[in-house]
Structure formats: structure tokens, C-alpha cells
Amino acid sequence: MRKIAIILIFSLFPILASAQETEVKVKDPMMPKGMIGIKYSYGISNVSMSQDIETKPAMMPLNLSITYTSYMNLWDIMPYFGLQFEARYSHEGFNSRYLGNERYTVVDASIVSQFHLDFAERFRVLVNIGPYAGYRLTVNRDWNDMDNRFDYGLYGGAGFAIVFKPFEIHLEGNYKFSLSSYYHPNKLSYDYWLFARPNCISISAGIFFHIF
After folding, report:
1. Residue 74 pLDDT more than 90?
2. Cα 197 to Cα 180: distance, rounded to the nearest angstrom
């Protein structure tokens, strides 16, 4: 009887292993993958002032970015996690009755955690959050020592994707908030410091290609 039991156990082992592998695949439906894509964004740019200075948003219709996204099973317990690396070329600015209408271009890059929830085999919901850093290139006036050309802050938003393997179409809304003042605090006065932190709402559409 002992020999028969041992033979049965060894004969059932491949079946059990196969079943276990199938179970793992069911529990972890999102295998690691990489995507590269381009996005076009329409921006609504403004600035948050520490002093009571009236500002109005500026519409920026032409912003482009290149994005790489990698989905992975984080620590084998979070199959809906991904990392997104994005490099952007953007136009930003604001309108002000007292400071004039500022317009400038900026290049920046972000590294965000992108959480995704897939459903109906063709759709996924996206949530992004992470830091960014950048550099302000040009402005519609001369730069001076009281302007701050380096930029950094927080970037995040949400959207959804439509999947047509090997392509995807992403529609997103994101918010960018700078932690770096556009001006040096004492640009206008040494007695009353002014902090001007740019922010931008962007509505984007992108097309992505599955590279693996």
C-alpha cells in the first residue's frame, strides 16, 4: 500500500504543479510589460502667489511629451502597479494686471507611480502620482538674476486607456504643482517677499506601443 501511495503522489505531482501555475496566472493576470508612447496636451497654466496679486490662467495649446511605462507585480502582492518615465516640452505662463503676462517654455521629466485597474479586456483605469524636475528655457522678456530657472514639484492625475494590442490610446487629466518659486522671493521688494509657484492643469491624449 505504501508503494502504491508513493506512485500515486508522484503521478499526481505534474498535475498539481500545472494547477498551481494556472492559479498563479489567474491571481497575477497583469504580466510585466513595457510601453513607449507620445502624448499631446492642452494646458491651463497659472501661478499661486503668496501676496494678494491678481492673476489669471493662460491657455497653452501645444505641449508634447515622450513616455515610457513599465507594469510589474510589485513584491508579488500588487499586480496593478507601474512606473512611468515622462519627458515633456511645455509652454506655461500666467496673466497678471500688475506683473504683466508671463510666457515661458520649460523642459521637465517626471517619475510617477501609475496604478492601473484593467477590465473588459480592452480598458484600464489609470492613477498617476510622483515628483518632477525641470528647467525653464525661454521667456517673453529677458531673464535676470531675480528669476528662478530651475523647477521641481509634484505631478499627478488620472485617466483611462483603450487597448488595441499592440497599441493603446490614453486619455488623461493631470495636475502639476511647482514647489520652486518662479521669482526669487525678494525680486520686487526686500521687505515683502513674494513666492510665485506655477501650476498647470493638462488634458492629454496619447498613443502607446507595446514593446514587450
Report:
1. no
2. 6
Query: Is the pLDDT reported for residue 39 higher than 70?
Result: yes
Split at pLDDT 50, 70, 90, the class of 143 is confident
Which single residue is written with the C-alpha cell 513674494? Answer: 194
